[in-house]
Amino acid sequence: MSRQNTVLAIATPVFFLVLWELAALLGLIDTRFFPAPSSIARTGVNLVQDGVLLESLAVTLRTLMVGLIVGNVIGTVVGVSMGLIRPLRASLDPLLSGLYTVPKLAILPLLLLMLGLGEMPRVIVVAIGSFFIAWISMIEATMGIAHGYLETAESLELTRSQRLRLVIFPAVLPEYFVGLRIAVGNAVLLIVGVEFVMGGSGIGSMIWNSWQIFATERMYAGIVCVGLLGYVLTKLVKMIARVAVPWSPKSTSRRR
Amino acid sequence: MTTAHTNTMHTEVGSLEVTDSSARQIKATIRDVSKVYRGRTQVPALDNVDAHIYDGEFLTIVGPSGCGKSTLLRMINGLQRPSEGAVEISKSSTDRPLTSMVFQDYSVYPWMNVFDNVSLGLARSGLPKPEKHSRVRVWLDRLDLGKFESAYPSELSGGMLQRVAIARALVAEPEILLMDEPFAALDAQLRRRLQEELLEIVGDAGRTVVFVTHSLEEAILLGDRVLVMSARPGRIVDSVDIPFDRPRDPELRKSPEFRDLEERLWLMLKEHATATA
Ligand SMILES: Nc1ncnc2c1ncn2[C@@H]1O[C@H](COP(=O)(O)OP(=O)(O)OP(=O)(O)O)[C@@H](O)[C@H]1O
Ligand SMILES: [Mg+2]
């Protein structure tokens, strides 16, 4: 069953790629817009070889990681605290819920106005987006902890720090990783958007510039690269989650 | 009006208070306790409950659903405060917790393995680590959990989980062990096995246990005394002594005396089963 799934998972995209390649070869599609996969790959290899692609990727990845980590850490702390402390929730929830719906890219001009053209506004946009996702998933997770778990902790007379460490953190950990996965995808989206607008040497601007100079292959190579970036990061989070949440029934049944 | 939940050192066990050798030492007193839950509506849960818990006795509590049995246990455990009245427990040792509770469910943490779950019972004990570990091992073995100490709860059956909860409560050697329908979720067969195990564990050490159950049979088989409660708001209807010697054989259930007692308790419950508030 699972092997069949793997075969299907690989065969389906391969099938479409072959179809695409054939269509391009036979002139059924306009190769100005849809260059053959093989020529995209060739361009990609060239870009890797002259170092352009990896350099852009490194630039993008750095901004993304800094923003993601900063936003995620702050969002997690704020979310868990608000979930635990009612007055904090009462005072901050309406404000944050209101801000939550503002599209994060929409504040970029404001940040540019305040901070100028440096690295900072990019990081902050990613951080804000990551903050909100961590915040909302952690406040929900914390408030959703089964009352019985907390009552047991009280009955065992755990200290405040024991309660946090032994009960509350592990109870919200699975949802933390779900949130983190969503945040990763969202962060890739934001950084690419920011680079479209602000230029620079990241992978987003590479895609945008390729459009302007009509280097379609290069554009596709960039798109694939961004896609892979998101995929690899998400996969990484999943792997960490599997190690960090060893009690989840799914992973134990897989082990059996 | 006393509203505090007081765990005062109000009698020392072994003090000179005992004049009659047959008199039982009082371990805890529930003094005119009433409880009203204040939410959108006011729910009176307990109404002037007055009872003693004697040292070393196995006290079982039966009563209609929602009559405040769990509320009463929570108050003894210090999880809730009485709206009126007080719970007083006499402390006889400084290094044992006063009470520990076995809940019906949600008490075994899925993110800890069996060993760590049981160790939690000693989280506040201040014992050195090796001592903690050896005490945990003792109780794991007594409850047949030795082989599962590194298993996660998701890998265990319901009966195993309840054993973990019991081991965790017992490892702390509480002065009073509180059990809130600990076997209610188990099937009949498993229930019997755990009842027998509990009889064994309790039989040897003269532990003080307060055990809430829906099953009259369970109440009689396990208890030295049964408290019968009325429908909500709960009051104490009667206290019935169970005359059977220990160690008790579970076959006791089949004796006519057992059946008579069960019938008597059942009639009592029936009479007070309709809510008065
Ligand atoms: N936290 C709470 N807030 C409001 N009402 C509550 C709360 N806990 C219990 N009650 C109400 O108080 C009454 C007594 O509850 P309790 O859980 O003590 O009863 P119980 O005898 O243990 O019932 P059961 O046999 O079903 O376990 C019930 O009517 C219940 O609905
Ligand atoms: Mg109950």
UniProtKB/TrEMBL annotation, chain A:
It is found in: Cell membrane. The chain crosses the membrane at residues 7-29, 64-85, 97-117, 123-143, 188-208, 220-241. InterPro entries: MetI-like, MetI-like_sf. Coiled coil: none annotated. It holds the Pfam family BPD_transp_1. The keyword Membrane applies. It is a multi-pass membrane protein. Residues 53-241 form the ABC transmembrane type-1 domain. GO terms for biological process: transmembrane transport. Keywords: Cell membrane, Membrane, Transmembrane, Transmembrane helix, Transport. One of its GO terms (cellular component) is plasma membrane. Its main location: membrane. It comes from the Bacteria. Belongs to the binding-protein-dependent transport system permease family. This is ABC transporter permease. The lineage of its organism: Bacteria, Bacillati, Actinomycetota, Actinomycetes, Micrococcales.
UniProtKB/TrEMBL annotation, chain B:
The keyword NAD does not apply. It comes from the Bacteria. GO terms for molecular function: ATP binding; ATP hydrolysis activity. Keywords: ATP-binding, Nucleotide-binding, Transport. It holds the Pfam family ABC_tran. Residues 28-256 form the ABC transporter domain. Gene3D superfamilies: P-loop containing nucleotide triphosphate hydrolases (3.40.50.300). The keyword Glycoprotein does not apply. PANTHER family: ALIPHATIC SULFONATES IMPORT ATP-BINDING PROTEIN SSUB, TAURINE IMPORT ATP-BINDING PROTEIN-RELATED. This is ABC transporter ATP-binding protein.
